[in-house]
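Box 3.1 A note on notation
Throughout this textbook, protein chains are presented in two layers. The first layer is the amino acid sequence; the second is a token string describing backbone geometry. Keep the layers aligned when reading.
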Amino acid sequence: MSTRQFGARVQRNEDARLVTGRGRFVDDLPLDGVLHGAFARSAVARGRITHLDTTAARALPGVHRVYTHADLGELDVTMPLLIPHPCIGHPRTQYPLAHEDVYHVGQAIAFVVADDRYIAEDAARLIEIDYDILPVEVDPAKAALDGAPLVHEDVPNNIAAHLVQVSGDPEAAFAAADHVTRIQVRVDRSTAAPMECLSTAARWDAVSGELTVWDGTQAPIGLRGALASLFELDEDKVRVVAPDVGGGFGPKIVFPYSNEILVPFAAKDLRRPVKWVEDRSENFVHMTHERTQIHDIELAATSDGVVLGLRDTFLHDTGSFIPYGIAVAQVASTQIAGPYRIPAIHVTFDCVYTPTVPVTPYRGCGRPQANFAIERAMDQLAAELGIDRFEIRRRNFIAPDEFPYTRPDLLFADGLPVTLDSGRYDDALAALEKALDLDAISAEQEQARGEGRLLGLGLSFYVEGTGLGPYEGAKIRLHPITGKAYVNTGLTAQGQGHETAWAQIVADQIGVRPEDVIVVEGDTGVFDWGVATFASRAAVVSGNAVHVAAVSARARIAQAAANMLEADPDDIELEDGRAFVRGTSSRGVTLAEVATMSNPLRYAFNKAAQTATQFAPTARSTGKPLPDGERPGIEVSEYYSPPHATWAYGVHAALVEVDPVTCDIDVKRYVCVHDCGNMINPMIVEGQVAGGVAQGMGGAFYEKLEYDENGVLRNASFMDFLVPYATEIPHIEMVHMETPSPLNPLGVKGVGEAGTIPVGQVIASAVEDALSPLGTPPVRQVPLSPSAIHDLLREARVSV
């Protein structure tokens, strides 16, 4: 096309459908004769079931089945450990329905299927469950001590996994240091709280032996594999469809949840479609959580602030099971050095079982915790050495000519050494300083203090490993009737704008409008090779697969058009849905005609098809209508596999005022500079960053899951779990930088989690800076809250 689409601010193709209520979610599916499910869940954190009676539930009119673990047959097995690792000494995963023991409040014990959800819920409440309640310890630091109550009786000290990674020579670095900074920081537990909770519907076709499952998952292909394995079906007999997904954020990458087994099982057993949609209360105690880590971090530095070495020992709360392996802890351990040239690193972590909801990745996946630890430590080092916070970072940045920068023996989530591919960290910090106008801010702070107001500046630099492999693929097909391009991948979208971004990539290659590219994802029936949407990988891996496929499609179109126009393929240009000979637009054909001509027909069902029937002049040939080795139509499938992760980065700052009476905060300014390589669509990038900051604000000041001493979640509703309103999210001033990644053809890096990563540190450092004239202790924990700020002020003996 004459106008390049890659990098343009193209309006999103999917928005009209979603904002006008025409989205299709699992709960919207009109399945004839559908039955509805409900779970009976554990009311205690750790206990042994002494009595389970489903008689009354089974007798309730409208109930079709009540399942306990004894009814599941060969499905009564522990769920897979999705990402095994040698360091997991005591892997434990849960059963679809609890056996004799329960391990957290909310664990599924029985599943009721009834005519409607109301009856199913009523029946679930009629199930009688008694427990022998066992002692618990929900704090991971205490749970790892000798004598603490055990979640699993055969797991000493509740340690699920222990990993040590060493890069360089940390002992020598600490021995040579002029100064060592030591701090302990903590990031507490939270939840993704998506707009649409977990959801599953299933239908069994007894005639064909096919199982169709609709599920709000981030991994339809992975879920298909799990279901085929568990149900002992051939993969071609299982189809998983992820319709519109109301927010994924990581927890929907986990599979299979109990519902993803019980709903298909019931559909197969009852020969009726079955649907289950998680309500909000269930979501808090069932869908996986994340975040709790406690880091003891040390920095060894010279007297002028150059960091020589880093030690980090941390505990990671994995909840009652470890279904996703050590992913969150491993990502934290490998991002702990951030953007800094730290040649010697020693990092150790323990994954600790606690009698709480299991922990798996949630937007950020270990990165916010690592960022909070290293950036709090850098602020502390700067304070102890009397060096400006901006300057101490500048002295330790990896320089542009040092890329690619490898941290030997520090293995990232892809199993490969951490290798930061490209970056201009100093330029990003300079851009932030310019956007902030530090002199003006300093003067504003001075004036505020004179007026008795508490104004502080927070700062955080982050890096983000993105674009994990192993691969993704894409299929592009040119439709012979409309000339539109159809694109399929193995991913799902939960708001990332795939329908638009992939359309822009294709449009540039084959010369159509983005709105004439139809993207269909999340359906194993249309594309069944791929991994999933997670870890800021879609644009890097799937986007490049779409690009490679589009390049191949362009070549096929050019060859077919050249044959029709009796020209050289190199002279064919594609623009505005047509192929024509360079220099003469009159010698051209539509892409619909090209697609039809490449698909030899017998019947002329439309005008374009008339050119491809056996007696049409353009189709007359002495050879075969379809030459050997050729396929009909314009259809290509290609794959892309990244050599290793690519690393995005950025720096955020906020000017925050703390009210010493209400202990609330007011974010006066929020500025971020980010670099995700070449941007496919800057508007989508801005939406991703802004959404990430909003989620990060929740984790910085509002959203904390509070367990009591008995392992009961005290704030399992939006009445008590504080989610920030839109009015509490600041206006975000964004500065774009583009440092292309050398690892992929598009030069892109991921951006999906970028906004979330640094916000906790930004708010913590801003609050600490604001309160510093009052002599309050340093901020070492997030999320903060008015109560937490009150405690800081009280500890400093300040009257409030």
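The mean pLDDT is 95. The chain is about 25% helix and 25% strand.
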